[in-house]
Design goal:
Order of helices and strands: HHHHHHHHHHH
Distance between the termini: 6 Å
Helix content: 55-70%
Radius of gyration: 27 Å
Strand content: under 5%
């Protein structure tokens, strides 16, 4: 996630220089053909092109709204994950092994059980994050997508997904449990299964009653639902009939644009046909930027600069939940790197 309020010129040029250069060459070519070579027939009426531009603007706006909805839904999912993890930690620390069932809340075994349940929840959040970033669900096609990934690379860990998962599980879950997850594709699901089994054992041992067991299981199911929602966004692409034709319509409009401006500029006092070039470039930049804004938002888990900041969220979850346990050796909060928070 890009965190600065303003975009620097360097970053804008990184995304825009190729189309800007292409449309500059086209505008200069159209002006030279009309004004220098004398091929006035290259000029086309402005009204039909303006009508196309209006339709394209509506279409691009619809696509951008849909892309933003995907991005915002992804962020809502991670907000729900953070809330569920906090609720889990509070309930586990206050309910499991409560004195009224005859268990000593200061007992070392009860404290270890609470710690296991809370740290496993932290491990689950990290596993979901790593699995969502494990690979690109769709090929890194196009200059825009590649530029996003390259720009975000400095803010992303270079370890492989398996190495990151192994490191997380070694830190946060019992050794036998961590080794049992080796080679399993969906380790986050395994974490939730262990949580459910541990709750059943707690209920059997009398550490929680039926109502508390039910409430804690509801949090497990909520986590499962949010993981599934995130995986849905990851594995279901933005419909190509919207994304592809939006870009195609923008290209058609911008190719016709300088030829439609020739007659308009020639009709002004003094016939300043050369004004076709700057006005074409300005309009081209606006439409190209509108198109790129939608493209850069449609896949929020693809290691780009507009990703949901899952690493920062998971680190905050770990800090908060381990603080409830009384830990002091907490990780540092994730800071933006080159204004990109991952």
């Amino acid at each position: 996630m890009y965190v600065r309020r303003n975009l620097p010129l360097r970053l804008m040029l990184r995304f825009a220089w190729r189309p800007f250069l292409a449309y500059a060459v086209l505008a200069v070519l159209a002006t030279v053909l009309y004004d220098v070579v004398g091929l006035t027939g290259v000029a086309i009426p402005f009204l039909p092109v303006a009508t196309i531009g209006t339709a394209v603007a509506f279409y691009v706006g619809f696509k951008n709204n849909s892309s933003y909805e995907r991005l915002w839904e992804a962020r809502r999912i991670w907000g729900s994950i953070a809330t569920a993890c906090r609720g889990w930690a509070i309930m586990v620390s206050d309910v499991v092994g409560a004195r009224r069932r005859g268990a000593d809340p200061g007992d070392a075994a009860v404290a270890a059980l609470r710690r296991e349940l809370i740290l496993r929840q932290v491990a689950w959040a990290h596993c979901v994050r790593i699995q969502l970033r494990e690979r690109e669900a769709w090929p890194c096609e196009g200059n825009l997508r590649r530029t996003q990934v390259v720009a975000a690379r400095k803010a992303t860990r270079r370890e492989s997904a398996d190495a990151q998962l192994d490191h997380v599980l070694e830190r946060l879950v019992p050794p036998a449990e961590a080794s049992g997850c080796c080679g399993i594709h969906n380790r986050a699901l395994v974490m939730l299964r262990h949580q459910s089994r541990t709750l059943i054992a707690c209920k059997t041992a009398g550490l929680i009653d039926e109502y508390e067991h039910s409430d804690l299981e509801k949090i497990v199911l909520e986590c499962l639902a949010q993981q599934g929602a995130a995986e849905r966004i990851k594995t279901f692409p933005f419909p190509r009939q919207y994304g592809y034709f939006s870009g195609l319509f923008v290209i058609i409009f911008l190719v016709l644009l300088p030829f439609s401006l020739l007659g308009e500029m020639a009709s002004l006092p003094g016939s300043p046909v050369w004004l076709t070039v700057p006005f074409s470039l300005l309009i081209s930049w606006v439409f190209t930027t509108m198109e790129q804004v939608g493209d850069s938002s449609e896949d929020p888990f693809e290691n780009g600069i507009n990703d949901v900041p899952m690493t920062a969220i998971c680190t905050d979850i770990e800090i908060e939940l381990r603080s409830i346990l009384g830990d002091t050796d907490l990780p540092e909060r994730v800071r933006p790197v080159d204004a990109i928070l991952m």
